[in-house]
Amino acid sequence: MSNKDNVYRLQGLSCANCAKKFEQNIRNIETVKEAYVNFAAAKVSVKGDISVEQIEKAGSFDNIKVLQEEFNKQTTSVFKKRENVLPLIAFFLLLFGVILQYSFGKENPFVVSIIILSIIVGGYDLFITGVKNLFRFYFDMKTLMTIAIIGAALIGEWVEGAIVVLLFA
After folding, report:
1. Is the overall model pTM greater than 0.85, yes or no?
2. 26 to each of 19, 45, 61, how far by Cα in Å?
3. Which end of the chain, C or N, has fewer beta carbons within 10 A?
4. CB 96 within 8 A of CB 161
């Protein structure tokens, strides 16, 4: 812990309103003098005596992960990051389903099953959080994406639902 300006990288920040709520949660910590969340850059600047654990607790409503800002850090390939595995699998399932549509048709049960599998693989966590938020009448980006996925399913537009999942993931 220190009493100087610290910059942290953020993972999992889903929307601008969530960033504002996260910033306010950090400012409410007694030992914090100032906090600023830059949603576009996925960073937070904090002045005060605070730990990474306290910052993550302030962002627990959105499962925000906090990383110490490191300069000259070696970057990892997008294919090697663990959090990208399920969205990549979902992407390839969707691609396979779209290709199959041209051979078997849009309404073929096998094709629809592949695309639904893509939605489940890529959007399970999003969907669970969105449904919980919906029942609590808390509307954030995850809730809106869940409603969009349900709407796409109700009108039989499975590919569009899967694309919503992938865009959010």
Report:
1. no
2. 11, 10, 12
3. N
4. no
